[in-house]
Amino acid sequence: MISIHQAISAIKTTCKPLMKEAVLKVEKSSGFILSQDIHSPINMPPFRQSAMDGYALNVHEKLEYYLQGEMKAGDNHKLYLKEGEAVRIFTGAPVPDSANAVVMQEKVKVSGNKIVIESNIPSEHNIRPLGEQVKKGEIALKQGTKLTPAAIGYLTSLGITDVLVYKQPSIAIVTTGNELIKAGKPLPFGKIYESNSVMLQSALGNLDFYDVTLHTIDDNFENTTSKLQSVINLNDLVIITGGISVGDYDFVGKSLEELKTEVIFYKVKQKPGKPLFFGKKDDTIIFALPGNPAATLSCFYCYVYIALQKMMNRNALELPKIFAKSQSNFKKSGDRPQFLKAIYKDNEVQILEGQNSSMLQTFALSNALVFLPETVSNISVNDMVEVILLPS
């Protein structure tokens, strides 16, 4: 059995960026990571652009100007202004090359074809210069940038339609157990509805991982070995839930051994989630998580999350951690470090009732985990505690 720190270190060392690439349409690339720099094919803005509704001026010493028409957004005709002339202009419209300032309309009095401004304004005032955001040929976004909605909008504004990104890992979720049946069917005595697969698939989707397949195995050594061999051969990451303990009908460990899987670690000194397995076979990363749902999800956020970030070549590997003031008292039983389901808000955190590893009701209310290290046995109200913020 190893420590939490040793387990995290082993995952960071073992997992490598996939470095597989794929070309995606920009609008389908949310959450992906750029695998190369993107250079802008145009200047942005592509012309000198008015930042205001007002008047573009060819500035002279006087405050009076003579109007020579108007320019609105989308107009592509060109006007030439002599010194002392102006054109009515609207936000986003092209500024004539002969204009050297834009005065906002609130500072102008209009009389027929003449305007009077309140005071002289500086050169290039209220004009967005050519290439202000990015110039043609410059790097618009660097390799390693995560494509957010804003990034996608930015690239589209440059006329870019396709991007080269790091391919997402293919992920198999395997659930084990004779007691499990699919929700929606009648529930016979002795059976429970299987929830781990849809829970993990949802957690992955929340992190923008969608190349996910679901598999079920009954408690049988031959079936377990055959199914695990198949999903390991076809996927970059395999997440197994249940069957990893040492009971008579826990066959995952035996099957992984039969398949000559490299064991990086098995069992972590923690609660919940002690019987956690991490290994690899060839280039496939394998996690076997405890079957209890709350333990499954805790291990996913604390360990599988790190592997996913490393495989996607992201910089921030772990979920954000902060210190917050506890609103609760808590007494730990045993000497294992513990992850406690909690609600964080405004620099305070409330530890919830119902910390049993089989209980999802409490986890459903949580947005954080409080980490209670081995050396701490009690938490009192107003104690500062370490908080792991879960993805929203």
TrEMBL record:
InterPro entries, per database record: MoaB/Mog-like_dom_sf (IPR036425), MoaB/Mog_dom (IPR001453), MoCF_biosynth_CS (IPR008284), MoeA-like (IPR038987), MoeA_C_domain_IV (IPR005111), MoeA_C_domain_IV_sf (IPR036688), MoeA_linker/N (IPR005110), MoeA_linker/N_sf (IPR036135)
Cross-referenced SMART domains: MoCF_biosynth (SM00852)
Family annotation (CDD domains): MoeA
Name assigned to this protein: Molybdopterin molybdenumtransferase
Keyword check for Transmembrane: no
Catalytic activity: adenylyl-molybdopterin + molybdate = Mo-molybdopterin + AMP + H(+)
Organism: Winogradskyella alexanderae
Function: Catalyzes the insertion of molybdate into adenylated molybdopterin with the concomitant release of AMP.
Family according to the record: Belongs to the MoeA family.
One Pfam match: MoeA_C
Keyword set, alphabetical order: Magnesium, Metal-binding, Molybdenum, Molybdenum cofactor biosynthesis, Transferase
Gene3D superfamilies attached to this UniProt entry: MoaB/Mog-like domain (3.40.980.10), MoeA, C-terminal, domain IV (2.40.340.10), Molybdopterin biosynthesis moea protein, domain 2 (3.90.105.10), Molybdopterin biosynthesis moea protein, domain 3 (2.170.190.11)
